[in-house]
Amino acid sequence: MRREERTFRVMLDDGGEPALKMSYADYLRFEEAAEVRHEYIDGRVVAMSGGTLEHARLAAKMIVLLANALEEGPCTVLSSDGRVRIEATNNARYPDVSVFCGEPRVASDDAQGLANPRVLVEVLSPSTERDDRGTKFAHYRRLEALQEYVLVSQDRALVEVFRRVTDGWTLREFGPGDACQLASLGVSVSVDALYAGALPR
Fold first, then answer.
1. What are the backbone angles phi and psi of residue 174, rounded to the nearest 5°?
2. Measured in whole angstroms, how far is the alpha carbon of residue 97 from the centre of its chain?
3. What's the confidence (pLDDT) of residue 51?
4. pTM
5. Total Cβ atoms within 10 A of residue 14
6. How does strand 38-41 pair with strand 44-47?
7. What are residue 99's phi and psi, to 5 degrees?
8. Confidence band (pLDDT; 50, 70, 90) for 20?
9. Strand 119-123 and strand 148-152: pairing?
Protein backbone atom coordinates (compact mmCIF):
# COMPACT_ATOMS: atom_id res chain seq x y z
CA MET A 1 0.00 0.00 0.00
CA ARG A 2 2.86 2.35 0.78
CA ARG A 3 4.33 2.01 -2.71
CA GLU A 4 0.91 2.68 -4.28
CA GLU A 5 0.31 5.77 -2.15
CA ARG A 6 3.53 7.37 -3.41
CA THR A 7 2.02 7.56 -6.89
CA PHE A 8 -0.76 9.86 -5.67
CA ARG A 9 -0.30 13.61 -5.93
CA VAL A 10 -0.92 15.59 -2.73
CA MET A 11 -3.17 18.63 -3.11
CA LEU A 12 -5.10 20.93 -0.82
CA ASP A 13 -8.85 20.84 -0.46
CA ASP A 14 -10.99 23.96 -0.01
CA GLY A 15 -10.34 23.97 3.74
CA GLY A 16 -6.57 23.84 3.36
CA GLU A 17 -6.35 20.21 4.49
CA PRO A 18 -4.15 17.70 2.65
CA ALA A 19 -5.97 15.74 -0.05
CA LEU A 20 -4.89 13.02 -2.46
CA LYS A 21 -5.41 13.02 -6.21
CA MET A 22 -6.25 9.65 -7.73
CA SER A 23 -8.57 7.75 -10.03
CA TYR A 24 -11.88 6.45 -8.71
CA ALA A 25 -10.67 2.86 -8.92
CA ASP A 26 -7.63 3.79 -6.81
CA TYR A 27 -9.90 5.66 -4.40
CA LEU A 28 -11.98 2.53 -3.80
CA ARG A 29 -8.87 0.53 -2.97
CA PHE A 30 -7.56 3.33 -0.78
CA GLU A 31 -10.89 3.69 1.02
CA GLU A 32 -11.16 -0.03 1.71
CA ALA A 33 -7.84 0.04 3.58
CA ALA A 34 -8.30 3.45 5.27
CA GLU A 35 -9.06 3.81 8.97
CA VAL A 36 -11.23 6.91 8.41
CA ARG A 37 -13.75 7.68 5.67
CA HIS A 38 -12.87 9.90 2.72
CA GLU A 39 -15.08 11.60 0.15
CA TYR A 40 -14.19 11.68 -3.53
CA ILE A 41 -14.60 15.15 -5.04
CA ASP A 42 -13.62 15.61 -8.68
CA GLY A 43 -10.61 13.34 -8.36
CA ARG A 44 -9.57 14.59 -4.92
CA VAL A 45 -9.77 12.33 -1.90
CA VAL A 46 -10.63 14.36 1.19
CA ALA A 47 -10.75 12.98 4.74
CA MET A 48 -14.02 13.60 6.55
CA SER A 49 -13.77 15.65 9.71
CA GLY A 50 -15.50 14.84 12.97
CA GLY A 51 -18.60 16.68 14.13
CA THR A 52 -20.17 17.79 17.39
CA LEU A 53 -22.12 15.54 19.74
CA GLU A 54 -25.29 17.38 18.73
CA HIS A 55 -24.53 16.75 15.07
CA ALA A 56 -24.22 13.03 15.79
CA ARG A 57 -27.38 13.03 17.93
CA LEU A 58 -29.48 14.78 15.29
CA ALA A 59 -28.31 12.42 12.56
CA ALA A 60 -28.99 9.37 14.74
CA LYS A 61 -32.41 10.71 15.79
CA MET A 62 -33.38 11.36 12.17
CA ILE A 63 -32.44 7.78 11.31
CA VAL A 64 -34.61 6.44 14.13
CA LEU A 65 -37.59 8.64 13.30
CA LEU A 66 -37.42 7.81 9.59
CA ALA A 67 -36.90 4.11 10.20
CA ASN A 68 -39.93 4.01 12.50
CA ALA A 69 -42.07 5.91 10.01
CA LEU A 70 -41.00 3.66 7.13
CA GLU A 71 -41.10 0.38 9.03
CA GLU A 72 -43.97 -1.12 7.03
CA GLY A 73 -42.91 0.19 3.62
CA PRO A 74 -40.41 -0.61 0.87
CA CYS A 75 -37.88 2.07 1.80
CA THR A 76 -34.57 1.61 3.63
CA VAL A 77 -32.70 4.14 5.79
CA LEU A 78 -28.89 4.24 5.77
CA SER A 79 -26.48 5.92 8.16
CA SER A 80 -23.46 8.00 7.15
CA ASP A 81 -21.56 4.77 6.49
CA GLY A 82 -23.53 4.46 3.26
CA ARG A 83 -21.61 5.90 0.32
CA VAL A 84 -23.52 7.71 -2.44
CA ARG A 85 -21.90 7.74 -5.87
CA ILE A 86 -22.68 10.58 -8.30
CA GLU A 87 -21.20 9.37 -11.56
CA ALA A 88 -22.41 12.39 -13.52
CA THR A 89 -20.06 14.67 -11.58
CA ASN A 90 -17.41 12.11 -10.54
CA ASN A 91 -18.18 12.46 -6.84
CA ALA A 92 -18.72 10.10 -3.93
CA ARG A 93 -20.17 11.42 -0.69
CA TYR A 94 -21.26 10.11 2.69
CA PRO A 95 -24.52 11.91 3.56
CA ASP A 96 -25.58 11.91 7.20
CA VAL A 97 -28.71 9.96 6.25
CA SER A 98 -29.81 8.34 2.97
CA VAL A 99 -33.09 6.70 2.02
CA PHE A 100 -33.73 4.52 -1.00
CA CYS A 101 -36.91 2.67 -1.94
CA GLY A 102 -37.22 -0.75 -3.48
CA GLU A 103 -33.99 -2.42 -4.53
CA PRO A 104 -30.74 -0.47 -4.14
CA ARG A 105 -29.08 0.45 -7.41
CA VAL A 106 -25.30 0.76 -7.28
CA ALA A 107 -23.01 2.72 -9.57
CA SER A 108 -21.44 1.08 -12.60
CA ASP A 109 -17.98 1.66 -11.13
CA ASP A 110 -18.71 1.12 -7.43
CA ALA A 111 -20.41 -1.99 -6.05
CA GLN A 112 -20.94 -0.23 -2.70
CA GLY A 113 -21.89 3.19 -4.09
CA LEU A 114 -25.63 3.84 -3.86
CA ALA A 115 -26.88 5.48 -7.05
CA ASN A 116 -30.62 5.77 -6.38
CA PRO A 117 -31.25 7.60 -3.10
CA ARG A 118 -34.71 9.13 -2.94
CA VAL A 119 -33.98 11.34 0.08
CA LEU A 120 -30.66 12.67 1.43
CA VAL A 121 -30.21 14.40 4.78
CA GLU A 122 -27.34 16.59 5.94
CA VAL A 123 -26.99 18.04 9.44
CA LEU A 124 -25.52 21.52 9.07
CA SER A 125 -22.40 22.69 10.86
CA PRO A 126 -20.38 25.92 10.52
CA SER A 127 -17.61 24.15 8.60
CA THR A 128 -19.90 22.35 6.14
CA GLU A 129 -23.00 24.52 5.71
CA ARG A 130 -21.71 26.43 2.70
CA ASP A 131 -20.82 23.18 0.92
CA ASP A 132 -24.06 21.47 1.96
CA ARG A 133 -26.12 24.31 0.52
CA GLY A 134 -23.96 24.92 -2.54
CA THR A 135 -21.50 22.57 -4.19
CA LYS A 136 -22.70 19.37 -2.54
CA PHE A 137 -26.35 20.10 -3.35
CA ALA A 138 -25.37 20.83 -6.96
CA HIS A 139 -23.80 17.38 -7.19
CA TYR A 140 -26.73 15.67 -5.45
CA ARG A 141 -29.18 17.26 -7.90
CA ARG A 142 -27.57 15.20 -10.69
CA LEU A 143 -28.90 12.02 -9.07
CA GLU A 144 -32.01 11.22 -11.11
CA ALA A 145 -33.69 9.29 -8.29
CA LEU A 146 -33.28 12.05 -5.70
CA GLN A 147 -36.61 13.68 -4.84
CA GLU A 148 -35.91 15.52 -1.57
CA TYR A 149 -32.85 17.04 0.07
CA VAL A 150 -33.15 17.78 3.77
CA LEU A 151 -31.00 20.19 5.80
CA VAL A 152 -31.16 20.02 9.59
CA SER A 153 -29.94 23.01 11.60
CA GLN A 154 -27.93 22.65 14.79
CA ASP A 155 -28.49 26.28 15.81
CA ARG A 156 -32.28 26.16 16.14
CA ALA A 157 -35.22 23.85 15.55
CA LEU A 158 -35.36 24.21 11.77
CA VAL A 159 -35.61 21.61 9.03
CA GLU A 160 -35.44 22.68 5.39
CA VAL A 161 -36.78 20.37 2.69
CA PHE A 162 -35.84 20.97 -0.93
CA ARG A 163 -38.25 19.05 -3.17
CA ARG A 164 -37.79 18.28 -6.85
CA VAL A 165 -40.59 19.61 -9.06
CA THR A 166 -41.06 19.67 -12.82
CA ASP A 167 -39.01 22.81 -13.45
CA GLY A 168 -36.59 22.82 -10.52
CA TRP A 169 -36.67 22.61 -6.74
CA THR A 170 -38.96 24.11 -4.11
CA LEU A 171 -38.15 24.83 -0.46
CA ARG A 172 -40.33 24.33 2.60
CA GLU A 173 -39.25 25.12 6.14
CA PHE A 174 -40.48 23.31 9.24
CA GLY A 175 -40.04 24.56 12.82
CA PRO A 176 -41.25 23.86 16.36
CA GLY A 177 -44.63 22.17 16.44
CA ASP A 178 -44.47 21.20 12.77
CA ALA A 179 -44.57 17.79 11.17
CA CYS A 180 -41.84 17.81 8.54
CA GLN A 181 -43.47 16.40 5.43
CA LEU A 182 -41.41 14.14 3.18
CA ALA A 183 -43.80 13.73 0.27
CA SER A 184 -41.59 11.38 -1.73
CA LEU A 185 -41.68 8.88 1.14
CA GLY A 186 -45.26 9.53 2.22
CA VAL A 187 -44.23 10.14 5.84
CA SER A 188 -43.65 13.01 8.24
CA VAL A 189 -41.15 13.61 11.04
CA SER A 190 -41.96 15.60 14.17
CA VAL A 191 -39.59 18.56 14.49
CA ASP A 192 -40.15 18.59 18.26
CA ALA A 193 -39.21 14.91 18.50
CA LEU A 194 -36.10 15.46 16.39
CA TYR A 195 -34.81 18.27 18.60
CA ALA A 196 -35.89 16.87 21.98
CA GLY A 197 -32.89 16.40 24.26
CA ALA A 198 -30.50 18.76 22.49
CA LEU A 199 -26.85 18.54 23.57
CA PRO A 200 -24.36 21.40 23.95
CA ARG A 201 -22.21 21.95 20.87
1. -130, 130
2. 6
3. 84
4. 0.89
5. 12
6. antiparallel
7. -135, 130
8. confident
9. parallel
